[in-house]
Structures are given as C-alpha cells and as structure tokens.
Amino acid sequence: MRKSILKYILIVLILGTTHIFSAQPIIIDHSCCDLTKIPENFIVQAKQNFRIAYGHTSHGSQIVTGMTLLQSQLYNFGTSSGQLYFRDNGIPGASDLGNPDRITWAIATRNLLKNNTNNINMIIWSWCGQANTTEQNIQIYLDSMSSLEKDFPNVKFIYMTGHLYPPGSGGCVDGNNNLRNEQIRNYCRNNGKILFDFADIESYDPDGIYFLDRCADDACNYYNSQGNLIGNWAVEWCNAHPGQCGDCSCAHSHCLNCQQKGKAFWWMMARIAGWDGVPGSTVAIPTLKGPAINSVDDDGSVKFEWNAVNNATEYNIQISEDNSFSVIIHNQWTSSLEVTVSNLELGKMFYWKVKAKTENVTGDWSSVNSFITRIATPVCEFPIDNEKIDGTDVLLQWQTVPNASEYEVQVSEQTNFNVLVDSYKGNNLRFIPSGLQLGKKYYWKVRSANSLITSYWSTASSFECLANEQNKITLNTENYDFGTTQVGSHITHPFTIYNIGTTVVEISDIRITGPGASVFLVVEDNIQASIPPNDSMQFNIKFLPDNTGDYNASVNITNSSFNNPLILNISGSAIPSTDVNDNFVNQYFDFKCSPNPANTEITLNINIKQKGLNNFDISIFDNNGKEYSKIHLQDLQTWNNLIKIDLTSFPSGVYYLTIKTHGNLFALPVILVK
Prior knowledge:
Elements: H1 2-16, E1 26-28, H2 40-49, E2 51-55, H3 61-69, E3 77-78, E4 84-88, H4 104-114, E5 122-125, H5 135-151, E6 156-160, H6 176-191, E7 194-196, H7 198-201, E8 221-223, E9 229-232, H8 233-240, H9 255-272, E10 288-290, E11 295-297, E12 302-306, E13 314-320, E14 328-334, E15 338-341, E16 349-357, E17 369-373, E18 380-382, E19 387-390, E20 396-398, E21 406-412, E22 420-426, E23 430-431, E24 441-449, E25 461-466, E26 473-475, E27 479-486, E28 491-499, E29 505-513, E30 520-522, E31 529-531, E32 535-543, E33 549-559, E34 566-575, H10 582-588, E35 589-594, E36 601-608, E37 615-622, E38 627-634, E39 641-646, E40 653-661, E41 664-672
Parallel strand pairs: 1-7, 2-4, 2-5, 3-4, 5-6, 6-7, 11-17, 19-25, 27-34
Antiparallel strand pairs: 8-9, 10-12, 12-15, 13-14, 13-16, 16-17, 18-20, 20-23, 21-22, 21-24, 24-25, 26-28, 28-32, 29-31, 29-33, 30-32, 33-34, 35-36, 36-39, 37-38, 37-40, 40-41
C-alpha cells in the first residue's frame, strides 16, 4: 500500500505541475458574503447547471450548516428537482483532504468520476485541521487537484484553505497554518483556480474588521500578543446586530461563522455560473416562461413570454431552427415581456432565447428553449365525400404536406374507426385499400408525420362501392321461403339471374351453404353458363327435408366477371308425414279422433288387435312443426282405449296428431276452430 501511495504521489508531481490554467481565478473570501448583491438569475443558472459532490468531516460541515440556515425558494439545495444538486458526503472512499491520508481523497474522486452515474460536474473537498502541515504536503494537495483537472476537464474542482488555529498551535498571521493557507492562495491566484478561502472568511466579521492579526481561531475567539483570550468577534457582532444572526449548531464554532460560509458558497455558485462578482456591472438574464421546453404548437402562431429584469429597458428575442443559432429566422427588440410570432413553418423544431438591455449595458443570453410546431393535417382529395364509386377498386388520394416524411391512412365501415378494413403507412400520396365489398359504405382518414411530430387526423371522408355497370348481375329475389312441407316430401322453385350490364357474365358456381344446406339441392347438373347482356339464366332449387324443423341456408352465385358473389337467402319448414300404413293398422290396431274439426277437446280411440302392442307415444304438432303436446301411454286394454286431449290453450289452425309405437309413426290432421 505504501509503495502504491508513493507511486501515485510521483505521478501527481509530474503531471500536476505541468498543468497551468490561463483563466482568471475566482477567489471566494470574506468580501463575498452579501446575498443582496448576487443577481438571482445566476443562482437560477447554477441550480440548473451544477451537480456537486462534497467530501468533508466536521469543519467542512460548517458550509452545509450555513446553507441550511439560508434555505429558501431561491437558495435551496439537495437532490430533488428545482434544487441545486448537492450530494453531501457524496464521495465514498475517503473522509476529507487529510483522512485517512493525503491522497486517498484523490483516488476516491477518480473512482467516482470514472463511474459518474450521477453526472457530477463539480467536486469540493475540505480540510479538518490537516492544512497546518508542511509545504511539501500542501504541494501534494495542489498537484493532485491539478492532475484531476487535467484528466477530467469537464468537471469544476474547488480548492479550499484550512480553518484557523489558536496561538501556540500554528495560528496567527505569522504561524505555519496561515503560511500554508497563503501557499494555497498564491497557487490559485497564479494558475486561475477557484478557491473557497475558508480561513479568510473566519478572519473577518461581517463589517470587514480583521481579526487574524489578533490570532483569531476557528471558534471566532481572538487573543492578545501574550496569547490570552480577549473575546469572540461573532458573539460581539451578533450582540451589536440583533436579529441578523441565525440560530444553529455550528461545528467547532459560532453560528455566525457557518452563516457567513453559507452565503459565500452561494456567491461562489453565482461566480462560476458567469457573474463577474461586481454588483450592478451586469444585467440579469431573463428567465423564459413559454413556450415550455419541447412543447407543441398547433398552428405556427406562438406567444413567447419571459420574466422581467430589473432596470431593463429592452429585450432581444431570437428564434432559429438550430440550437447554435447559425441562421436566425426572427430577431426582434421589444420593451414588452411577450412577443407573438406568426407563420412559423409547421412540422419543425425551433429554438429561442432572450437577453435584456439597460440604458448602458446589454446582458447575456438566457438559456435556450425549444418547441415544435405540429405538422399540417393532410386534406382528403379523392374520392370526394359521400361519392358513389363503381366496383371496389377505389383510389384514395390526399394532398402533400410540407416536411412530412410519412402518411398513415385508415379505412373502416365505422365512423369511430374501432375496426379497420385496411390501413396504410408510407410516403406515397395514394392508396388502394383491399377488402372492400360492393353495396357498402366506407370511411377513411389520413394524417402526416415526420421524425419530430404527428399531425391530427383529417376529417373523415366517405364513399360507397357500387356494382360496375359493365358487369352488373342481379336476382329476381334476395330472399325466398319454401313454406311448410312434410318430412319425405319436396318442393322445387325456380330462380332467375339477370345480366343488366353491357358485357357477357360467366356464371362459374352456384353453391348452398349454411346450417340447413343439407336439405336444399341445386337441381341442375351443370350450373356453369354465359349470360349475354340484357339476358337471363334460370336455375332450380329443391327443398327435401328429412326431419321436422326449420331450415335456413344461403345460395352463393359466383362469376368470373364480378368480385363478390350474389347471395340468395332461402328457408323452409318440415312437419311429420301423414302417410298411414294400412296393413299395420288393419292387422294390429286402428285409431280415430273426434270431433274433427274440434273446438276445445278431442278424444282418441285406440283398438288393439295384436297382443303386446301396449306402449304408445302421442304428440300434436302445428303447421310449422312446433310440438304442442306429448303423451306416453302403456298397459292399454284391448278395446276402446279412450284418451282425451285438452285443446283449450291451442290457437285455431291445422295440427297433426302423431302416434308412434314399436318404431312406426302414424299421423292424422286435426283442424281446430275457436
């Protein structure tokens, strides 16, 4: 470990001493403790731009205590949005500039910045007594700082002097502690560094009275030439200025000392943010209000607003299409705090900034905000709204939009476009949708886009697909009901296809589909045919049910000249057969019902001729095959089995009474008159 430390010191001495800053130094001392002189906009900029990691022990905590004492809406710090990003004790691996040794802090800093997950761009370390050391040890500190600056040029490194010591311990003007602090000061002045002069701040009271010549220490005590305690400048100043000293627990010192260092810290933030440190020598920078960063404007007419700057007489606003403002598209001076700019090009990102001017001085530019103008919405050109179009080959066309790189189209049967028939996304200005059907109405809309923004959808336009007059065919009916027939019977009905177009239509297939397709039959063996213009073709469909019930099916008529088939919807009902097996009845049993026609009741008389025929199922169906009554009979006597059936709830009409026994079915029509 000792060899590694010696090797590190040697590298720091070689690299650190060769790196000289040419910039002007920033020295933060006892004269930098008046917050009223700091332009607020520089504090705002510091909070926006700086991300600080601070390493310290007890003496270094005085700065944090003072900043905490000053907490306000403007002077706030922490790690939350809107605060100065400040990670207290945020450099793991070391405690301060001398603990555990004189270089571990530098190693810990390198490790943090090499894996800079928090985007730290400012490093601060403080002493806790170790600055009262040898000239060589202070040089190690200075060279280590310089080496870090060389290796991490985008990070600000804050140098610091050590706290004061009492007489007899290296304190006083001619003591070693002040000599080492002066060594740090001279280095920072000569090499353009940023120095937080911890020792100088506690050498003066707020009125600028010097106490180091009286051997002031870190507790704000001061002594005579014999080293005897005379008083405490902080206590004395606070007693003389009631209400101006805060109440806090300040490590090793009086709260006023912490308060002064907190004020000096914010002064340093403003200086690093660009303030020259001379009150009134600069014009504050306007704070931009709107449009907000990356906001979207809908029509190219944008209202720009910013906050007022004290003593400003004019403001200059510039707008550009690039953040370097190489091409200015709008440059205007105004005494107002707002400007409206119209006719900005749509579908682009713009950048804007503002600076203020007093009678004699022009300030710096504000931060740059950006916004986007929404790209224009395309206009549907063809087909015109509510147009009726022959066929299903529909060309959708829309107007071009400046700065658009892509268009999106949606086609639907619904005005809310919840279910799409087809869609398109690409850079063409035309689109032919698929999946369209004749006789239907469709809605379509289009929007434009580029890499920045998407437009609003256009107003939906509609069109309707009609049959092409050159290939137009039709049926003599679209729906046909075969009515009611008995099971085992059949009904045949003719249908006619008319060609009302101007060209020959080729019929390629007639096919029956649907749940009841099995009981319907196309009679023709060959249904392929050519139908000349103004001519027709006839075909027959047979309804031959094999069981009772209602049947529905569809006849699909396809042709080679038309995209979609003609559809014929057919239906029919089947009731039980009324055929009677005479041999069976005459030989084994006979039956009859009376009265017929009936009104409220019928009586069924069954005579059994064959022994063993004693189980019967009796049902009554209406003309549509609906079963109204069902009776099971068993253990009947041989003659005159009379069964009464109540018809009170039955409506008038024709019914069928059926008797089923041993696998045979017999039916008898019954007429009911109310």
